[in-house]
């Protein structure tokens, strides 16, 4: 019989065995037994100020490192505060393991103090979850949780452990190879599918690479570059895939979707073949589905078989990891091209005309106030493509996706699927922990910032010097934009008055950060450089920007991509384009 | 819309029924009937799910179900190569004499006949059961209890063998990937 330890010790040893280096959390009654061995563990525990912060920090850490992010909380409210980050990680396929304490086994189901059925609550928003009431089950559950979180299509896994299971004595035997009868992700693509896909590529005259976040998850950006250059077709990267293909590359047409470039959106619409890699035909990309890319055949490569045909029929489905998939496509396409080299010159002439006629841009406000797009563009230009940029949700997120130039994977983090306001500050904190030598800028809104800024206290106390740009338009900007466009300018409950209250610079200083403010264009570069020079404390810059700036182009929700607008009531001049 | 029957092998673990039921509800699939029970393997339960779907939606349902970690295998049970049965009890205000002519030709028996009320037990496929219930309606059905359908594939091969063949349980992929899952 192996040496007897407590369930809590077994939990911490299991996390160590899984290779965990850092976790974000807050203790409480039910999880308290685990915090005793955590005190002695080599795992770095970062004490956050709200469990939601722990969850998003785990996500930020995972997105930057590719490792599994770990967060830990107590039962009841501690656990329910993790629901939003779990749902967020689930939508964006982020590998995460959440550990929660549960009331003691005999109390489960009695409405005990701080009891919540977190396994039941999180079933729809996790890849898998566990409720452990037997201490002997702890190592197996943790081992499986890490395997499930990271393999296949990554996602969050929750392990809920009853308090008495943490207190009881148990042996320790960590299984390095979990046996899961019902879980066998397919890694290698089917060879016939690869040949079929290559044949379709060779036959097409208007192909487009439709690249999703899966390419980043699969660490397949270098493979993609080779395949894309071999084919020579236009490449578009979705919101989750910014950085998967260099923005500076001549084949890159930018981002598709509701706020995509005219060239990227039109490339999809006019294409005869979408080479879809790790993307999921989200409504924000397709617009009205029945009018999306109506003449295109679809190659759809994804590790998740349930994505195939979910929103759009796939002519050639390829199930597998994108690394092996793309590496198999390269020789298969090369063999087809040997028989017949395709000619995309007409297609490129059309796309080049679109991108030169309709580049991303913005008008400076007429009243001389600061343009939010300019601020974001300068942060990117001055800080450079090696830094990590983390956005909240809303107008500033879209501008950060449009006006910062991404050259590398894992340098752009945002809440794409769930659209979680308040993501930026804690996710940036997690990112900085994962990449301590890399500058990390949170591009946040004044609305988002007020949801989770308390984690700046965590950053100050734990030497996590992130930088936060508050794009302060004193409103819930994207909602206000929709009110301007679709509700006759009736600004119901979108005015936050945040140029008056709170004083963000003072708030930042109260939390141990350096607080700066910028109100004029002439100061922007100087203040960004000043912020970049500070590495011993978090920095918050309150950029007071024009409140009526809007995100363009725009495909209004529920309408066709064909109805893209480049400004208010202004469609592209299609008659002048040969399409 | 067409009716399909799925046999789903699941690990016999806590919460698995909630996972399957929750999936159907959140993805908006309508279940006509669901029957769960033990199998020859105490670690495995078998669900028989009858549902109404548009044509290609069945692939999507199967793929979503298969994503559940506790789901081991899924097979559509086509009428032609499976046998399907449902069990029903009908409490009816009629005596043996009135009922017997209506039950002729069905696998149905009267299990109780007391003071003008009978209980009929029927084992039938869905089509026959619907037809019989229609005939009994004229006598006034007081209470109806129906199980969901259960189904078995004809021939010597078992569902475990079939699904494990199809999903390539023994493939080398699983091995290579296991190396890489830790932080």
Task: Set out the fold topology.
The complex is a heterodimer of chains A (579) and B (183).
Chain A: E1 5-6, H1 7-17, E2 22-25, H2 32-40, E3 44-47, H3 51-65, E4 69-73, H4 77-80, H5 83-91, E5 96-102, H6 118-122, E6 128-132, H7 138-150, E7 156-162, H8 163-167, E8 169-170, H9 191-203, E9 207-211, H10 214-217, H11 221-231, E10 235-237, E11 252-254, H12 262-270, E12 273-277, H13 283-286, E13 297-302, E14 316-319, H14 322-339, H15 345-357, H16 372-383, E15 388-391, H17 395-403, E16 412-413, H18 424-434, E17 440-445, H19 446-452, H20 455-461, E18 467-472, H21 477-486, H22 504-510, E19 514-518, H23 521-533, E20 539-544
Parallel strand pairs in A: 2-3, 2-4, 4-5, 5-7, 6-7, 9-10, 9-12, 10-11, 12-13, 13-14, 15-16, 15-17, 17-18, 18-20, 19-20
Antiparallel strand pairs in A: 1-8
Helix pairs in contact in A: 1-2, 1-7, 3-5, 3-18, 9-14, 11-14, 12-15, 16-17, 16-23
Chain B: E1 2-11, H1 16-26, E2 30-38, E3 44-53, H2 57-67, E4 71-76, E5 82-92, H3 96-103, E6 108-114, E7 117-124, H4 126-137, E8 141-146, E9 150-153, H5 159-166, H6 172-178
Antiparallel strand pairs in B: 1-3, 1-4, 2-3, 5-7, 5-8, 5-9, 6-7
In words, what does this structure look like?
The complex is a heterodimer of chains A (about 575) and B (about 180). Chain A is an alpha/beta fold. Chain A has 23 helices and 20 strands. Chain A has a six-stranded parallel β-sheet, with helices on both faces. A six-stranded parallel β-sheet of chain A has the order 11-10-9-12-13-14, with helices on both faces. The N and C termini of chain A lie far apart (about 75 Å). Chain B is α+β, with helices and mostly antiparallel strands. Chain B has two domains: about 1-75, Alpha-Beta Plaits (2-Layer Sandwich), CATH 3.30.70.260; about 85-145, ACT-like. Chain A, domain 2 (Alpha-Beta Plaits, 2-Layer Sandwich), CATH 3.30.70. Chain B is about 30% helix and about 40% strand. Chain B contains six helices and nine strands; from the N terminus they run E-H-E-E-H-E-E-H-E-E-H-E-E-H-H. In chain B, about 25% of the residues are buried. Chains A and B meet through helix 7 of A and helix 1, helix 2, strand 4 and helix 6 of B.
């Amino acid at each position: 019989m192996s040496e007897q330890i407590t369930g809590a010790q077994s939990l911490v040893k299991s996390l160590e065995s899984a290779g965990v280096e850092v976790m974000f959390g807050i203790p409480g009654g039910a999880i308290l037994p685990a915090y005793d061995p955590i005190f002695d563990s080599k795992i770095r525990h970062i004490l956050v100020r709200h469990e939601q912060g722990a969850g998003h920090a785990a996500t930020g850490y995972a997105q930057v490192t590719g490792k599994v992010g770990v967060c830990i909380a107590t039962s009841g409210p501690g656990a329910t505060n993790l629901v939003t980050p779990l749902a967020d990680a689930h939508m964006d396929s982020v590998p995460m393991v959440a550990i929660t304490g549960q009331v003691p086994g005999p109390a489960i189901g009695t409405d005990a103090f701080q009891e919540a059925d977190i396994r039941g609550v999180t079933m729809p928003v996790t890849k898998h979850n566990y409720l452990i009431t037997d201490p002997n089950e702890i190592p197996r559950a943790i081992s499986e949780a890490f395997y499930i979180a990271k393999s296949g299509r990554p996602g969050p896994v929750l392990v809920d452990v009853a308090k008495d299971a943490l207190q009881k004595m148990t042996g320790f035997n960590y299984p390095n190879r979990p046996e899961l009868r019902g879980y066998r992700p397919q890694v290698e693509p089917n060879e016939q599918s690869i040949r079929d896909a290559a044949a379709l590529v060779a036959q097409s005259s208007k192909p487009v690479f439709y690249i999703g976040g899966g390419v980043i998850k699969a660490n397949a950006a270098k493979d993609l570059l080779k395949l894309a250059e071999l084919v020579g077709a236009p490449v578009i990267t979705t919101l989750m895939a910014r950085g998967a293909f260099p923005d500076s590359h001549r084949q890159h047409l930018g981002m598709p979707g509701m706020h995509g470039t005219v060239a990227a959106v039109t490339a999809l619409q006019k294409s005869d073949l979408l080479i879809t890699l790790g993307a999921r035909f989200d409504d924000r990309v397709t617009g009205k589905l029945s009018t999306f890319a109506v003449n295109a055949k679809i190659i759809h490569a994804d590790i998740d078989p349930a994505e195939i045909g979910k929103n759009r029929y796939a002519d050639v489905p390829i199930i597998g990891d994108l690394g092996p998939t793309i590496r198999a496509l390269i020789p298969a396409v090369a063999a087809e091209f040997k028989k017949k080299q395709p000619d995309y010159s007409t297609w490129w002439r059309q796309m080049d005309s679109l991108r030169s006629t309709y580049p991303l841009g913005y008008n400076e406000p007429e009243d001389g106030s600061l343009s939010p797009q300019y601020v974001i563009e300068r942060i990117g230009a001055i800080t450079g493509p090696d830094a990590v940029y983390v956005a909240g949700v809303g107008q500033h997120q879209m501008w950060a996706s449009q006006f910062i130039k991404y050259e590398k994977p894992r340098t752009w983090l945002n809440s794409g699927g769930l659209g979680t306001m308040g993501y930026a500050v804690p996710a940036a904190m997690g990112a900085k922990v994962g990449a301590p030598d890399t500058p990390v800028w949170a591009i946040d809104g004044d609305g988002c910032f007020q949801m989770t800024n308390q984690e700046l206290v965590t950053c100050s106390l734990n030497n996590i010097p992130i930088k936060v740009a508050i794009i302060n338009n004193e409103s819930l900007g994207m909602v206000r934009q929709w009110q301007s466009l679709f509700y006759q300018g009736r600004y119901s409950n979108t005015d936050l008055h945040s140029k008056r209250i709170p004083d963000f610079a003072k708030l930042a200083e109260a939390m141990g950060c350096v607080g700066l403010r910028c109100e004029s264009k002439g100061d922007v570069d100087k203040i960004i450089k000043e912020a970049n020079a500070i590495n011993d404390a978090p920095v918050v810059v309150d950029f007071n920007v024009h409140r009526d700036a809007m995100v363009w182009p725009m495909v209004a929700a529920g309408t066709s991509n064909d109805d893209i607008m480049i400004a208010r009531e202004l469609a592209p001049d299609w008659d002048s384009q040969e399409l | 819309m067409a009716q399909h029957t799925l046999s789903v092998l699941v690990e016999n673990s806590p919460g698995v029924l909630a996972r399957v039921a929750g999936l159907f509800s959140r993805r908006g699939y309508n279940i006509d009937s669901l029957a769960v029970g033990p199998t020859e393997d105490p670690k495995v339960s078998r669900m028989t799910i009858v549902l109404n779907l548009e044509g290609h939606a069945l692939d999507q349902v199967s793929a979503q179900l298969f994503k559940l970690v506790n789901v081991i295998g899924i097979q559509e049970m086509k009428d032609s190569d499976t046998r399907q049965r449902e069990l029903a009890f009908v409490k009816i205000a009629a005596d043996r004499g009135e009922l017997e002519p209506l039950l002729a030709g069905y696998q149905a028996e009267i299990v109780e006949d007391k003071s003008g009320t009978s209980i009929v037990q029927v084992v039938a496929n869905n089509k026959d059961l619907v037809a019989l219930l229609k005939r009994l309606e004229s006598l006034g059905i007081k209470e109806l209890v129906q199980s969901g359908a259960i189904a078995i594939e004809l021939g010597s091969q078992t569902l475990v063998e079939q699904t494990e063949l199809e999903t390539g349980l023994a493939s080398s992929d699983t091995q290579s990937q296991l190396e890489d899952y830790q932080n």
